[in-house]
Amino acid sequence: MLEKFLLTLDIMWKGMFGIFAVIILITFIVMFIQWLEKTLINKSNKTE
Amino acid sequence: MEFLLSGITSITIPQLIMYVVGIVLIYLAIAKGYEPSLLLPMGFGAILVNLPSSGVLNQSLTGIGETQGIIEWLFHVGIEASEALPILLFIGIGAMIDFGPLLSNPIMFLFGAAAQFGIFFTLSVATLLGFNLADSASIAIIGAADGPTSILVSQILNSKYIGAIAVAAYSYMALVPLVQPVAIKLVTTKKERLIRMPYNPISVSKRIRIMFPILVTFIAGLVAPMSVALVGFLMFGNLLRECGVLNSLSEAAQSTLANLITLLLGITISFSMKSDEFVTWETILIMGLGLVAFIFDTIGGVLFAKFINLFRKNKINPMIGAAGISAFPMSARVVQKMAIKEDPTNHLLMHAIGANVSGQIASVVAGGIIIGLISNLL
Q1: Which residue in B has a C-alpha nearest to residue A24's C-alpha?
Q2: Residue B280 · residue B14 · CB < 8 Å
Q3: B335 within domain boundaries
Q4: pLDDT (mean) for B190-213
Q5: What is the pLDDT averaged over residues A19-44?
Q6: Is residue B58 part of a domain?
Q7: Binning pLDDT at 50, 70 and 90, where does residue B1 land?
Q8: Distance of alpha carbon B296 from alpha carbon B286, whole angstroms
Q9: Which of B24, B62, B132, B204 has the fewest CB atoms within 10 Å around its CB?
């Protein structure tokens, strides 16, 4: 029983880590694309 | 005359209990409005599959042999063989979701992840209560607050409790307005609930809206490959919505497809509500564990918001963390209602909606991760 419980704790940290890894990666990429888009628009506005 | 009475005389007590369960589900759907599109077909299906020698199940008739039952066939084809019904439903769900409030306030992504904590907490509790690992994980996924994900994960992990899990998942989704306020108040102070959050969204271009579903599919697919079926179909539906050139398909996915699949899914899942499988002590335990999962999802989200506040100048109202579960839009509405109750001028709805749609992505990712982790251990 204890062994199984410890296994679930292992699944818990791996699972939460996995979810956060995916979500944080998505967040950073979305923020990067938004920043890139904004920079490019500002640049093209300046050249005009 | 005996043949006319054989049906009545062969009814068993567990079958009678299932008729009551079916009628209660129909009552909750009609009178209380709790997830009627799912609970009503499930309730009626529970009665259908528990009638003695029911024609909706495969039967062996003397002189004729095997006959096919429609609900059993639907279950084998639509859920057991391919998990097609829950997966196809994600196209409709994806087409319904507007990720705009999330994309304009990306920090809300994090709350979707944090509010999946209840899944893993419940996994540990279910194991301590004696369920095997696959059943514990299937029960725990009720905490994803997402009916199709619960059905899909419990089917892939071959859980024998799929009926009870589906009933618990949909019932608690409907009960979010009752469950979440209690859990939120348990871990927040009045001062925290009064925190105001100005809403200054960044404008989201069409280009980003189109790139987003493709990006999420790539990332989720590469980091958690088992989540691809769920995330991929959810994002495919969203791409239909955002691309702007398939409006009729997007509308069909949002209404016709989603309604048809929901109808079939409800009646099909009732196959697993046969009295010999459903009327057990484990069903009561599963209902209790479902509640634990929802409470700890909420607590996980709220505590994470409090943790983030330790490092932020502009504080986040911790109630926003509770909206990170997938039950959309009930959870966001609960947070807004509670905020207004504390201070009628404090509007948190748009922040809460951002967290809530993030929960929809995080819950399907959690489903995929659970399948991946558990299948490696079995």
Answers
A1: B110
A2: no
A3: yes
A4: 88
A5: 90
A6: no
A7: low
A8: 15
A9: B62
